[in-house]
Write a structure and sequence with these properties.
heterodimer; A: alpha+beta; seven-stranded mixed β-sheet; 7 strands; globular; B: mainly alpha
Chain lengths: 193, 39
């Protein structure tokens, strides 16, 4: 059986990860991402399972060589267009569309965590690439999505910045918030596939 | 808005503002996702 220590010494590439939708009864007790709120969410079925069964967010567990190494929770959401700085918004949204579409369709990353024993191994980047791929596939299958959005803890903000997420404009509710809303505009990716 | 400023504003709206670093980071992401989905 592979241990977390063994994984630390291994190169972890994209194809060595396995993604599995959460369901009740899965063993998640050993997971520790060093963030109490995220650990509690995953370990307590009244949170993670209830959230999923209520249709509020679907959690995916991420494994490497049989060990639980991360998880994320996704749901459909939107971001009011007023929070996106014009200068940073990729083109294609014209003034008339802006008047009609007040909210830009988005996938909300409600939770995102990697086990603390494997921080720095690139697993978070692989997971985000998976989510971007899922969003692009969803577009092709007939559901519009323009942004990925999340609420970032202060200490996670540099990580998301490295993954090319931007801060929303500091207007209204964003002002003085500790956790900041960040977004990735899929249209800035060009023709990625 | 007229003249140079108007043209610049229109260009900004009409033309996607690509992020080359993001494009490089996420290149192949959809294919990788579909590969995982088929597993």
């Amino acid at each position: 059986m592979v241990s977390y220590d063994d994984l630390r010494d291994l190169k972890i590439d994209e194809d060595s990860l396995r993604y599995e939708k959460y369901h009740r009864g899965m063993d998640v007790a050993g997971f520790d991402c060093d963030e109490q709120g995220l650990n509690d969410f995953l370990r307590d079925p009244r949170e993670v399972a209830a959230y999923q069964e209520a249709g509020l967010g679907t959690t995916t567990l991420v494994y490497c060589h049989g060990l639980l190494v991360g998880f994320f929770t996704l749901g459909n959401d939107g971001l009011e267009i007023k929070y996106i700085d014009d200068r940073r918004l990729a083109g294609k949204v014209n003034r008339r569309q802006k008047e009609i579409v007040k909210t830009v369709p988005a996938i909300k990353i409600g939770r995102f965590a990697v086990d603390k024993r494997l921080h720095g191994k690139g697993i978070g980047t692989h997971m985000m690439r998976y989510i971007v791929g899922l969003a692009l596939a969803q577009r092709e299958r007939g559901v519009a999505v323009r942004l990925l959005i999340l609420e970032a803890y202060p200490r996670a903000q540099p990580f998301y910045t490295r993954l090319r997420f931007l801060f929303t404009s500091e207007k209204g509710r964003e002002r003085n918030k500790r956790n900041r809303t960040m977004y990735l505009d899929l249209d800035t990716l060009g023709e990625v596939d | 808005m007229t003249g140079e400023a108007g043209r610049a504003f229109k260009k900004r709206l009409d033309k996607p503002k690509a992020d080359p670093a993001a494009a490089a980071l996420y290149r192949g992401a959809k294919q990788a996702y579909l590969r995982h989905e088929r597993k």
